[in-house]
Amino acid sequence: MGDFPLSRLTHAGLGDLAEKLDAGVRLDLADGVRLFGSRDVLAVGWLANRERERRHGRRTYFNYNIRLEATNVCVASCLFCSFARLKPGDPGAYTMSLEEAWDKLRRRSHQPLTEVHVVNGLHPDLPFEYYTELLRGFKRIRPEVHLKCFTAVEIAFFADLYGMSDEQVLRELMAAGLDSLPGGGAEIFAERVRRKIAHDKCGTERYLDIHRVAHRLGLRSNVTMLYGHIETAEERVDHMLRARRLQDETGGFQAFIPLAFHPDNNQMRQLPAPSATDTLQVHAVARLMLDNIAHVKAFWIATGVEVAQTALWFGVDDLDGTVQEEKIYHMAGARTPEAMTTREIARLIRAAGREPVERDTLYNEVRSAQVVW
Ligand code: V47
Q1: According to a count of CB atoms within 10 Å of the terminal CB, is the N or C end of the chain lower?
Q2: Is the CB of 274 under 6 A from ligand 1?
Q3: Is the pTM of this model over 0.85?
């Protein structure tokens, strides 16, 4: 049982779960709900930290990336979203020209970036070539940079809009330079919640199937979970278990990323933001339920820097990256910085008693000669 008092785990009602984990027995839905019900966040965190250290020791991953949102025009009306604008020409709506988007990368030619992460609104009028050219241009400018672009929701939208199958869309984007899929658009898989907060975009089965197809075609991807709004503990665990089932099938998910709901400027603004304790507990339970997904990421833009740092003792082994120019969370009220340098990220990992490891998108270690931790 290690050095955490057995009596404390037993008192927290978690003794049998600790034994299950010791014996390598998988936790089930009821176990996950109990973990969320526990008032002893430290006991849950201790269990999660043990799983984290078994896999990664003190190592904590991050990457040198940029975020690009080429358009916020979006036909979907998700209740949690503060970023989208329904039509071109609506106040605040924007769509970058290809040159403008490429310029974002060109202007960073001095930075040893390894990843461009693209997420867009669902724009009804752009031709498919806008997206394939976007990727081709990025590869022309920086052939070595990994392109992690378009959520499964965007892939489904492209397929419907341009009359292709999901697989055809993925194949064409891969031919243009797509290297992996980000995990956005998952929200909450349970139909009760999805119907309320994201009723007019790609449903759960299709989201999962697009990741299934992507994995079959050789792409890696991530999976997210938007928490802290109207979902129950059972729906959170159900979400994790659906991701775990697909991972059993394909092995293609690299990281699970809980995303803390931000209530400013959207249709759920009457709700409070999730607390730091809730955030720590969500990441910890994810580490414990998802025995087959290697990494649990705290997206520091969403959790806040200090909570992300603390989460490194609650199951988290990855902090995303430098990010730069993030819009989705900042339009929803995030007060985190818009970017961190690799030096800042490494310093905060060290200050938390962990060992910083710069990685590329596929978790290969990157040794940037420029950076001395
Ligand atoms: O799907 C939108 C979320 C996601 C809000 O794959 C909001 O490495 C909170 O998926 N409050 C997009 N969340 C971002 C995303 C992501 C982030 C970091 C890393 C990766 C990865 C993926 O942002 C959306 C939605 O769930 N979101 N609005 C909001 N108000």
Answers
A1: N
A2: no
A3: yes
